[in-house]
Amino acid sequence: MRRALWPEGSASEHRSELERYFRGRAPWPLGVLIAETERGRRLGFAEVSIRSCAEGCETNRVGFLEGWWVHPRERRRGVGRLLVEAAEGWARRRRCLEFASDTRPGNRVSIAAHRALGFAHTDTVVCFRKDL
User: Fold this and answer.
1) What's the CA gap between 96 and 75, in Å, rounded?
2) Where would a tag sit more exposed on the chain, N or C end, judged by fewer CB atoms within 10 A?
3) Alpha carbons 41 and 62: distance in angstroms, whole number
4) Confidence at 67, pLDDT banded by 50, 70, 90
5) What is the rounded CA–CA span in Å between residue 11 and residue 123?
6) Which whole-number Å values give the CA distances from 104 to 20, 40, 80, 122, in the listed order?
């Protein structure tokens, strides 16, 4: 499921990240939520963390939706909503007063899904980097 959301990462990179997470050595995600049927068929997942800041947020302890994916056949059936609600509950239990997320500016499907779940657009950022 991670490869479907982040196809630029190889299977071994995703596996390595998850191994670090489950050993407690990765800074994020702090939680992984999986949606599945009663028979165990996986429908989607959410990875959540707590950040000290996020665009448009005012507190220094922000629940953050690091990754969120639902199988295309299961979209528009409430699976994504249930994952986000579970992620919000996860953040509330950890004393977060705000919950944030991001997506790429051109990802219209993700933007529409976020808006449908009550997220407010706060800013559009263009990021830069260079080698030193």
Assistant:
1) 28
2) C
3) 31
4) very high
5) 32
6) 26, 31, 18, 13
